Amino acid sequence: MKLIGLKQFIITGLFTVIPFGLVSAQTSKPATKKHTSIQEDLIAYNKVIPRIMNVVDSAALKKRLEQEYNEYPALDLYGDNWNTEWVNPYKSTVQFPDSFSIDVSNYCMPVPGYKTSDYGPRWRRMHRGVDLKLQVGDTVRAAFSGKVRITKYEARGYGYYVLLRHPNGLETIYGHLSKILVRPNQIVKVGDPIALGGNTGRSTGPHLHFETRFLGLDINPNEIFDFVNQVPHTDTYVFRAKTSIKNVYSARTAASKSGNNGSKYVTYRVKKGDTLSSIAVKYRTTVNTLCRLNGISKNKILRLGQPIRVK
To answer: Quick one: which H or E segment has residue 63?
Structure first.
């Protein structure tokens, strides 16, 4: 008697039960020879089955790892700290690695606009990102694949904003939006639309405020990206704790001490009754100049306390 062939066994399915009854009768063989033949075939099957199962297990493991990679981006860095309320909830628990390589090769410009304002001290405050030109309603895209951690509105800051965490270890922030197209815990791919550009929050004209952070620490996006050519400087950005922390705190100190924060602009805070015309007269300039400096129209409604660039 002889079992069905090994090739046929594999084709019919990994989990097919071996049909011990399906044997071809060979009555001429003694019982001992039939028993020996069955035993040999069983030994052959037992050698092959573990290899087949290893292939199945490897595929299942790969799929599971990919799922965890998407569901828990940068798990080795952030652990289970998944806060949907605060931009930087890591202040008391963060331990920066001495260095960390961040893969930025698969990158998409959030918007194709040019840079209108840089990272660094500005108006007695620290500007933690760069501003990119857009029009209200322009599509804003995810710079990298990742997962949405925060979607919120902040009247005195970002306005409507989205924060994404990425498997490469970075978190990116997109501010002053007019409409948010994603929700917290949603997984997005690089280049996916996540919002529409706007002029909400602490903003003097339509633009995208774009930040890059690592474990809560803001990193100058210019160190990672060439915004003129709209590509990363290199495929890998290396975070070095000593250098990065020093640079950030030096910039913050400069912001707190500087009167005009190194800006080439002079600003004016809007008071009750102010109009673009009255501000233009006060600073011996024109309404057209004010509109150009601030990226606004002549019909713009001014808010109390709004900073207006006048020179």
So the answer is: helix 31-71
Of 19-28, 70-79, 169-178, 196-205, highest mean pLDDT: 169-178
SS percent in the chain: helix, strand, coil, step 5? 30, 25, 45
How many other CB atoms sit within 10 Å of the CB of residue 204?
Answer: 19
Residues forming beta bridges with residue 158, ordered by sequence position: none
How many CB atoms are closer than 10 A to CB 4? Answer: 15
Q: What whole-number distance in Å separates Cα of residue 299 and Cα of residue 276? A: 9
pLDDT in tens, 174-219: 999 999 999 999 999 999 999 999 999 989 899 999 999 999 999 9
Query: Phi then psi for 146, rounded to 5 degrees?
Result: 175, -155
With H, G, I as helix, E, B as strand and everything else as coil, classify residue 3.
coil
DSSP for 254-282, please give it.
HHHH-SSTT-S--EEE--TT--HHHHHHH
Residue with tokens 């997109």: 174
More confident residue, 100 or 70: 100
Cα separation of 178 and 111, whole Å? 14
Contact yes or no for 255/122 (Cβ under 8 A): yes
* 8 Å CB contact between 252 and 262: no
